[in-house]
């Protein structure tokens, strides 16, 4: 899967949405997931 392919043919996505913003995908950095809009972070 290329980095720019966000949605599958059925409109689904593998990305997780930010629980605060709701309309922004969380960036996966391996040890954490981060929202670039509101700085929400989930550590793994």
From TrEMBL:
Q: What organism is recorded for this protein?
A: Natrinema ejinorense
Q: What is this protein called?
A: Small ribosomal subunit protein eS31
Which GO MF term does the entry hold, naming one? zinc ion binding
Q: Does the keyword RNA-binding apply?
A: no
Q: What domain of life is recorded for the organism? A: Archaea
Subunit annotation: Part of the 30S ribosomal subunit.
Record's Pfam families? Ribosomal_S27 (PF01599)
Question: What does the cofactor section's free text say about binding?
Answer: Binds 1 zinc ion per subunit.
Q: Which residues form the Small ribosomal subunit protein eS31 domain?
A: 3-41
The record's family statement is:
Belongs to the eukaryotic ribosomal protein eS31 family.
Q: Does the keyword Ion transport apply?
A: no
Q: Can you cite a GO biological process for this protein?
A: translation
Q: Which residues bind Zn(2+)?
A: 18, 21, 35, 38
* Alphabetical UniProt keywords: Metal-binding, Ribonucleoprotein, Ribosomal protein, Zinc, Zinc-finger
ZnF C4-type residues are 18-38
Which Gene Ontology cellular component annotation is one that this UniProt entry carries? ribosome
The Swiss-Prot or TrEMBL record lists the needed cofactor(s) as: Zn(2+)
């Amino acid at each position: 899967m290329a980095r720019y392919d966000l949605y599958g043919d059925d409109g689904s996505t593998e990305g997780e949405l930010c629980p605060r913003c709701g309309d922004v995908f969380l960036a996966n950095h391996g040890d954490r997931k981060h929202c670039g809009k509101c700085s929400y972070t989930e550590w793994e």
